[in-house]
Amino acid sequence: MRKYSILLCIGLMFSINALIADVRLPQIFSDGMVLQRNQPIAVWGWADPGEQVKVNLNSQRQETTADADGKWKLTLSPEEAGGPFQLVVSGKNTLTLSDVLIGEVWICSGQSNMEWIVANSNNAEQEIAKANYPQIRHVKIPRITAGEPLDDIEESLEWEEANPQNVGDFTAVGYFYARELHKELNVPIGLINTSWGGTMVETWISKEALKKDKNLKKAVLAYENTPADTVRKNTNPNRYPTLLFNAMINPLIPYTVKGAIWYQGESNAGRAYEYRTSFPMMITDWRKRWGLGDFPFYFVQLASFKAAGGTSATGSTWAELREAQHLTLSLPRTGEAVTIDIGTTNDIHPRNKQDVGKRLAAVALHDSYGRDVVYSGPEYKKHKTSGNQVTIHFDHVGGGLTTHGADEVIGFEIAGADQRFYPAEAKIEGETIVVSSSSVSKPKAVRYAWADDPGTSNLFNNEGFPAGPFRTDNWTPVTKNVVYELKN
């Protein structure tokens, strides 16, 4: 009888709490936020079941009703860039968010090179001192893992202005990207920084998407058979798949965004061939779940780094990862910033994040905003063999081919049918490169910058964009048969 009374009291407590539940917004909605311009704006949250919820923004007023689970969602009509505004949400209580801007909103995600902050980047003291961009706003999603998709971030979030007090803790790549966009577009820019150093791509993908691949499915099934109390919050995000999708992506959906920028891949280099599947899978998964169509997705190709010291002769996992990234351009509305020239042999974290941001911004300005700008370096198009010479043709030559740091072209290799590569002599002839070696009489393959750390490879266009690494052969990659296995 006593047990029944206790249960009855608990039931009454829950009933009373349900009756007095406040209207609530997700944590991503807070003072100083940036909403996406020129697109329908999703607003959602929680209230009492059946409660009428009103949302006011600028001159708009929309109403909806919370469903049986207390969830509600509505869509505001597109707004032009501007602000500051108030976003007012009311039901039995009223929420007023102030200093709300409308502009361009970008997800910034990946591992440590995206998480890397302005304070640790080149010329940090000067960059911080001159940061005076009140229309650039940044919000950092806290590091957390979850075994199942979360509806909301469990911690309060703060949108911060780009000023000397705050900018040191911004994602450096994101900030320098936003700064270039703001200078060109003159509209507010919002950065949602959801990144975690050392993470592999599989932890950023939903369980349902991973199950569609026969190899990745095995890891998911092993994860599903793991006791629930084993998968704890804040555990190693690489221990199981999908943990960061659950905790750091799903709670942001369906916040209206323009697109995403991504810097990741170092942790997947050992399985570079599989990245040809997993990386486009993640992009497709995010797009499907956001419901915004093929929103722009721009990524950074890995910079040079010694890693395991891989070369064409020994096999380079990092070169193969860069190739997998480049192949992802087959997806619509994707773009790539090549950074092979800014890496540091002994440091996986290049401090030059300014050029990374600028190159991503050039891609965005061309692809998303219709600007007539050069946004890429020379990109392998085709080749023709004549005798002992191979002529390489390129796209994105811009104002012409050139070299940096030396008069001769450095970084080309050539091989015959024996698949032994030799350093090649390479000459610029118009918009082509002619490659040869006295050691190879019948060339079958040419490679450029094909190594973990290709060092002084130096082919650029006159606009200052580096040529991306490439190979003309289709010889078997060293990572071809390496697949994801659940870490115990």
From TrEMBL:
Output the Gene Ontology terms for molecular function.
Answer: sialate O-acetylesterase activity
Signal peptide feature range? none
Q: Which GO terms describe its biological process?
A: carbohydrate metabolic process
> Where is each Sialate O-acetylesterase domain found?
104-363
Q: One of this protein's Pfam families, by short name? A: SASA
User: Keywords of this protein's UniProt record, alphabetized?
Assistant: Hydrolase
Q: Which InterPro entries match?
A: Ig-like_fold, SASA, SGNH_hydro_sf, SIAE
PANTHER family cross-referenced by the UniProt entry: SIALATE O-ACETYLESTERASE
Name of this chain's protein: Sialate O-acetylesterase
